[in-house]
Amino acid sequence: MSAPARQRSRDETLLSHAHAHQARYLADLARLVAVDSGSHNADGVDRVADLVGAQLERLGFDVERVPLPPAHGRRVGDALVGRRKGRLAVADGGRRILLAAHLDTVFEDGAAAERPFTVSECIAHGPGVSDDKGGLVAGLAAVEILNRAGREDYAELVFLATPDEEIGSPVSRPVTRRAAEGVHHALALECARENGDLVIARKGVADFRLAVTGRAAHAGIEPERGANAALAAAHLVIAIQALNGRWDGVTLNVGVVRAGNRFNIVCPAAELLVEIRSVTEVGMREAVAALRALAGRPAVPGTGAEVHELESCPPMEETDASRRMLARARDIGARLGLSFGGAATGGVGDANTIAGCGVPTLDGLGPVGGADHTPEEWLDTASVPGRVALLAELIADLGDGRRG
């Protein structure tokens, strides 16, 4: 059998297994969607971790359950890291592949009962059905059909499931960085864009608190003795927002402004909460430098401003390596009858952290879905077999480094 014919046979086998797995996929998805697992519902997140961990063990993974410290003073659920050896040694061309998903959703307790899992005309609804339970189950399904097809063409699969992605992964990032160590490629399991595109780039984000200080004075008797921090903050808001457009792919937003507490006092203190997003690390550095420079030049005499960085996450930059991964995914997709491109998004995910570790990363490898973070969130169940087969074949393709 010629190589192209052999490859077509392999593709057809995986697609056939994916179609046969569809009922199981929907049952597993319904089971996860039925559990309230908002980021701050640690018990609910842990119940999802129980279900996913059991599935991973059944699929031959050694599973580590990682307890995490509180996030913002509240307990979060455990992270999961599963590892499964393939049949190719790294020395013989085998590659380590990281599959990354998350266990939590943005929804409050009670959402699962208010909006239970439903499927109507191939469209599934329910809290987290797309973000990210649909992608999480797709990763498990892809490994299952690879096992069935005897396609263990990799050195190792690492399956990461984090509990706090929807609040910025404040406590799981060290786990993510450790999981990314020694990995050759990463496939993140957020669902594909509504048009079917994969995600090749995500903006990085950095959050800042600007503490503006002034000098209090009686606003009626001796206002000239004061230095109005609210006025200084207002100038800063205008100046910061004016930075938008200076660099391609960089946005700045003053999201919160607080100042003063009495009508009759010249305002002595104010606070700005500022977010910067950038498609590149260079753009982020330049924007942060500009923010600090503005804070160092107060527009109101007698006032000052200090910049405090709160949290940051690096951009998932489009690179030559990620473009090659996208090209390989598109080649596989074409063989499976799928057509898609590569999209850039302003949203941040665990893929940012992984890419920031220097691992070539491609995201959006779950089924097609949309309206994330809203009651209308949906997943196209008709897209599931093709997307699961795509993910499975991409794992095997990237996992065998002898293919180039």
UniProtKB/TrEMBL annotation:
Domain Peptidase M20 dimerisation as annotated: residue spans: 200-301
Database matches in InterPro entries: ArgE/DapE_CS, Bact_exopeptidase_dim_dom, Pept_M20_glutamate_carboxypep, Peptidase_M20, Peptidase_M20_dimer, Peptidase_M20A
Gene Ontology molecular function terms on file: hydrolase activity; metal ion binding
Catalytic site: D104, E165 (proton acceptor)
Cofactor annotation: Zn(2+)
SUPFAM superfamilies assigned: Bacterial exopeptidase dimerisation domain, Zn-dependent exopeptidases
CDD domains cross-referenced by the UniProt entry: M20_CPDG2
Gene3D superfamilies the UniProt entry points to: 3.30.70.360, Zn peptidases (3.40.630.10)
Highest taxon listed in the record's lineage: Bacteria
Pfam families: M20_dimer, Peptidase_M20
Name under which the protein is recorded: M20 family peptidase
UniProt keyword list: Hydrolase, Metal-binding, Zinc
